[in-house]
Amino acid sequence: MSAMVKLADLQGNILRGYTKKPHVRYLILEVANPAAARRWLAASTSGRSDGVPQITSGDWGASKPDTCFNIGLTYEGLRTLGTPSASLEMFPNEFIEGMTARALKLGDVGPSAPETWPAPFNEPKRIHLIATIYAEQPEQLNDVQKRALADTSAVTLVGTREGYSFPDDRVHFGYRDNIMQPRFEGVHDADRYADGQPKAPLGTVLLGYRTNLEGLRWRVPEPEELGHNGTFNAFRVLKQDVAGFEAYLDQAADELLKQPQAVGELLPPGAEAKIGKVFSIEGVTPRSALREVVAANLCGRWRDGTPLALSADVPDPELVKAANFDYVGESRCPFGAHIRRSNPRGGKIVQRVANNSRRLVRRGVPYGPAYDRTQPRQLEPERGLLGNFIGANLGAQFEAMSCDWLNLGLQDPRLTGSNDALTGANGTDSSWFDLPLKSGSTIRLRGLPRFVSTQGGAYAFLPSLRAIRYLGSLTT
Amino acid sequence: MPSEGGLLDRFVDWLPTTLFFKRAASWILVPYWAHKTPVKPLPGGPHPSFEHGDNVQCMMNLIMPLKVKSPIGRAEAALAIAQNKDAIYAGLNNVGTVHFARFVIVGDNICMFSVYDGDFTNYIRDFIATIGSVFNAVVALVEDGEDVTPCEKNVDAFIQWIHERDLYQVPDTATDFLRDQEALNGDTAMSGNHDDLTLLPRKLVLQLRANPNVSLGNGYRAYPGFSAAQVRERLELGW
Amino acid sequence: MVDASVSQRLVQAIIDNLPKPVPGQRPVHTLGIGVEGKFVASDVARTYCIAEHFNGTPVDASVRFSNGLGGPDRHDGWSDVRGMATRFHLSNGLASDLIGTTLGEFFVRNVDDFFEFSKIAKLAPYKKECWLQKIRDLLQLKFPPRNPYPGETESVDAGALRYADLHRFAQLGVFQVGLIGAPVSYVRAAYHAAHTFWVTAPDGVRRPVRFSWQPVAGVCNTDPKKAPRDDYLREELRERLQRWPARFMLMMMIGEAGDALDDCTKPWPGTRTRIAMGTLTLTKVADNQEEAGERISFNPNRLAPGIDPSEDPILKARLGAYEVSREMRGGCPFKWRPDNAK
Is the same domain home to A103 and A219? Predict the structure, then answer.
C-alpha cells in the first residue's frame, strides 16, 4: 500500500511532526521579483547544499536532516509567481479569497477580527509565501534564515513568528498536546498505535486521492504536477490568555464548591489525592482538585493527557498518550469538550454523513514564554500557539469544523448555540459549558471569557516537490 | 392622501399610479438609469454572520431554469424528483440539519426551497455525498447544469453554481439593502456624505433588475434560534 | 449618568423645535389617553426574568397611548409615531415602566447625535412640491415628498432627511418614520421599546433583551389615500373597550453577543430567540384623564428588580430628560426602586 504515495514528492511537514526539532521559525515572505522568486523556488529543490535551503521531503532516506525547511504559498503568492490563470481558477474559493475573507466562518470576530491583526497579517495581499524552519538549536534557525533571504531580489521578509516546543509536548494552558494525528491509508505507520479511528483515506490530506466522503474527489488544480500531492494549510497565530484561563479555573472551582452534591460526584473518594499526586499540587484541596477537573472537562483530556473517555474521575499516568477510544454509548467525555467538538470520531452527531470527514493534521508549537502561576506579572507578555491545520480541502475540513462544530455546536443539540469553551469566541454573558456528572445530570458552567484570540494567519497551499519545480520553471 | 391644488398638480400626483406611466418607466427610465448608475447583482443566501441565531434555520430559495421550457420539461423534472423520493428522504434524515425542504415548479423553473442549519457549503457538500446522484439527475435538466456535473467530481464548482442560483434575500429592514449594495462595492463608511435617501426607490428598482428573483426578507420563524436536532430532541423524537 | 444640564438642554432642544409652546404639558407625545388593564405573564416568563410582573400573578397596568407630535393640535390621521407607555403596578408601591413606540429603531445613537439632529432637523415651512419638480423626481425614479396635510405648514421632514443623508445609522429610523402612517386604533399598532434591557433569570443568568407589544387584533393603518381625520382615536378606543377588551402580547427578543446592545438605531435580526412573556388586557379608558393621561409620568429607566437598563446612551439620557420634563409640567412623581433611582 505504501506504493500508493511517493513520500519523496511530498513536503515533509505534511505527514511528519519533526518532533525532535523543537525550535520553529516562520518567515512570512513577499515575492520581490517574480523571475528571481521562481529561481529561488527552483533552487530550493535543486539538491545543492549551499544557497537556498532545500525543501525537506517526506522521504528522508538513510540520513535525518539537521534542519527542516518547508514552504506554503498563498493565492497571492501563486498569482505573483505567474501561475497561469487557468490553473489559479481551479483552486478552491476559500483559498482564493484567503483567511481574512473567511473571518465569520472561523470565528475571527471582535478581538480576533482580521482588522485587529498586527503586521504582517494586517496586509494579507503582501503575504505570498510562508517558509518554516525547524531546528534542534536556535542558532540553526538564523543560519537557515540567512540562506533563505540571501537573494534579496527574490523574496522580502515581511515578518517572522517563532515558537519553541515545551518539554513533554506541553502547551500554554498546561495540556499535553501532539498526542495523535490521523493515520492514513497507504502510509506506513510502524510506530503508531491504535487510535480507535478508521484510517483516513489519503484524500483527507493530499490532493488526488479518494476522500472520506463516498465518491467525492476534490478538484486537483492542473497541470497535474501543480496540484497532485499538494495540500492546504490554515496557518494561525492563536494568542492564549493563560492568566485568564487559570483565573477562570478558580472561578469555576468556587462555583462548584457551592454545590456539595456535585463536588461529591466530581471528586469520588481518593480522586482528590490522586489528582494532587499527578499534578504535584502541594496540600491538595477540593478546590485545587476541582480546578483540574474543570480543565480536564473543557478539553476532554486531563492536563497530563489522560482522555476523559477512558478515565473520567482521575488522571492515569498509564493513559497520558492514549488515543484508542471512541465516543459511543455512555462516554464520560463531555459532548462539549474541545477534543470531542473538533473531532467527534465515531460518536453520534447530527450530521451523520460527516463522521470522520473533517479530520485534520495539526502541527502546533507554542510561542512566548511559559506562564508562571506563582509569579504573575502586571502585564503578561503575549503567548500562544502557532498552529497549522492541514487538510486537502480547507472548506470541507478546517472551516466546516470551525463554523459548524466549534462555533455553532451543530453536531449535538445539547451543544448548539454554545462556543467551544477553550478556543471559541466566548462572551462572559452568553457562554456556557455543561459539565457532566456521574449520575447523568449536568452542571452548567457560565461566564467563560475568551481564552484564545486570533492574531494572524493565512491560507497556504503546500505544493509537492514536483509542483515547486514546476513553479520554478514557469516563464511569463 | 387626496391632493388639492391645480389640475397639473393633481395630474402629476395621479400619473405615477397609472399603468401607462409604470410601463413607460420600465421601458425607458429603468434602462436609462441602469446604464447611468449600474448596479451589481447581490449574492444569494443568508447574510454571512457569526451569531448563533443567524446560523440555524437558514433559508435556501433555489431557482433553476429548466432546459426544456414546456410541459415535457416540467414533467421530466417532476419525474426526476418522484423517482428519487427514497434517496431524498434518506439523505435529509442523515444530513440531519434540515427543517423543511420541498421542490416546486414555478414557470419553467425547478425550485428547491429549504430551511437548514449551519453553513451553506457544508450543507450542500454533505448532500452531494449522500444524494449526489439525485442532484445530477435534476441538474441535468437545468440550463448550464452540465458544467458542474457530476457534482461529486466538481464539489466546489457545484456548490458555487447552487449559490449563484440561490435568491438574494432582501433584508427585513428597508435601508439594510443599501448597506448590502455598499458592502458589495467595498464601501463600509459609517456615514455617507453623498447619500440620498429619496433615491431608495430607484436603487430598489435597479437592484430588482439585477436580481429579478429575490426573497423578500429572510422569512418568519415561529421558534427562531433552534436547530432541527434541538427541536427533535426537545419534542423527544430522537435525533 | 447624564449631566443634569444635559437633560435640561435635551428637553429645551425639543421645546425649541415645537410649532406652538405647550406649557404644563409634555413637549412631545403631548396628546394622550390613559387606559387601565391587567398584565398576566406567560408560563415561561418567570424562567427568564425574576421581575415581579413576570411571576404569573396578574398585575394592574396603566397605559398611556399618545400621538408623537408635540403641541396642542390633534392630528390623529397624520402619519406619525405613536406611543404606548405602560406601567406595571407592583407590590410595595413600586412599578416597572415599559415605553414603546411604533418606531422600531431610533434615529440617533447618543446625546451628541441628538443635538446635531435637532440643529439640522429644524421645523421648517413645509410646502407642496410643485408639479414640475415632481416630474423631475419621477424621471429620476425618486420618491417625491408627500403632500402636506391640510393645515400643515411646517415640518421637520426635510431636515430629518438631510440628517439621514449625512448619517447612515439614522436612515432606517428616518425612512420608517416616513412610512409609518396612522393606525385605525391605538390598539391596532405594534409598539417597540427600541432599547436593550438586561433581564435576570432565577438562576442568575442575565440576558440582553428587547421588548415589543404585538396587538392581538392585528396591525392596521388608515388608508393613506383618504383625507385624514383629526380626532378619532380617543373615541374609537372608548367605544371598543366598552364592547370588548383589547389585548397585546408582550414579546421579548434575546440578543446575541454581536448584536447592537447599546445602539437603538440598529435593529436585531428576526432570527433571535423570541419569548412570549405575557398578555396585557386593556379593559377601560380611565375615568380621570387628568390623572391617567396627563399627570402620570413614565420613565424608561424605572424598572422592577430583575430588569436593568443597558448602556445605551439614549436610554441613559431619557432617565434625566423625562424627569426634567415631568418637573416642568408638574407631572406626578412616582416611587423608584432604591438602586434604580436617578
Answer: yes
Query: Per the CB < 8 Å rule, is B221 touching C270?
Result: yes
Cell output for C163: 440628517
Residue B11 to residue C166, Cβ atoms within 8 A? no
Domain borders along chain C are 4-103+184-340, 105-179
CA–CA dist B117, A410 (Å, integer):
8
Partner residue opposite B50 with nearest CB, options A93, A104, A352:
A104
Cβ pair A429:C256 closer than 8 A: no
Contact B54 C271 (CB under 8 A): yes
Integer Cα distance of C87 and C96 in angstroms: 6
Contact C257 A429 (CB under 8 A): yes
Q: Domain count for chain A, please give it.
A: 2
pTM: 0.92
Q: Is the domain of A97 the same as that of A173? A: yes
Q: How far does C100 lie from chain B, in Å, by closest CA?
A: 19
Chain C contacts in chain B segment 61-100 (CB below 8 A) = none
Distances (CA, A) of A390 to A16, A212, A235, C12: 12, 15, 9, 63
Chain A residues within an 8 Å CB radius of C256? 430
Whether the CB of A425 is below 8 Å from some CB of chain C: the reply is: yes
H/E stretch holding B105 reads strand B98-106
B52-168 maps to which CATH number? 3.30.70.100
A99 and A198 within one domain: yes
- The interaxial angle of helices B155-165 and B120-139, nearest 10 deg, is 90
Are the beta carbons of A430 and B52 closer than 8 angstroms?
no
Q: Which of residues 158-217 of B touch A (CB under 8 A)?
A: 160
Q: Rounded CA gap, A139 and A105, in Å?
A: 39
Say if residue A92 is in the same domain as residue A80: yes
- Edge-first strand listing for the sheet containing B58-65: B58-65, B109-116, B98-106
Smallest Cβ distance to C270: which of B6, B30, B172?
A: B172
Query: Among residues B13, A167, A137, B44, which one has the least CA distance to residue C137?
Result: B13
Q: A114 with A121: CB under 8 angstroms? A: yes
Q: Give bridge partners of residue B45 from the DSSP assignment.
A: B168
**Phi, psi at B12, each rounded to 5°:** -70, -35
What is the predicted ipTM? 0.91
Does any domain span residue A379?
A: no
Distance from CA of B168 to the nearest CA of A (A): 19
Comparing alpha-carbon positions, the chain B residue that sits nearest to C136 is B12
- pLDDT, one tens digit for every residue, chain C (342 residues): 567 788 888 998 888 888 887 788 899 999 999 999 999 999 999 999 999 999 999 999 999 999 998 888 899 999 999 999 999 999 988 999 999 999 999 989 999 999 999 888 888 888 888 888 888 888 888 877 888 888 888 888 888 888 988 888 998 998 888 889 999 999 999 999 999 999 999 999 999 999 999 999 999 999 988 889 999 999 999 999 999 999 999 999 999 988 999 999 999 999 999 999 999 999 999 999 999 999 999 999 999 999 999 999 999 999 999 999 999 988 888 888 877 654
One domain for residues A427 and A467: no
All residues of chain A having their beta carbon less than 8 Å from the beta carbon of residue B48 are 104-105
**Domain extent for A128:** 7-238+457-473
Task: Evaluate the omega torsion of the peptide bond into residue C228 and state whether it is cis, within 30 degrees of 0.
Answer: no
Q: In this structure, are A111 and A158 located in the same domain?
A: yes
Q: Are B77 and B66 in contact (CB under 8 A)?
A: yes
- The answer to whether residue C171 neighbours chain B at the CB level (below 8 Å) is yes
**189-228 in B: which are within 8 Å (CB) of C?**
189-202, 205, 217-221, 223-226
Closest partner residue to A408 (CB to CB) among B55, B156, B228 is: B55
> Quick one: CATH architecture of C4-103+184-340?
Beta Barrel (2.40)
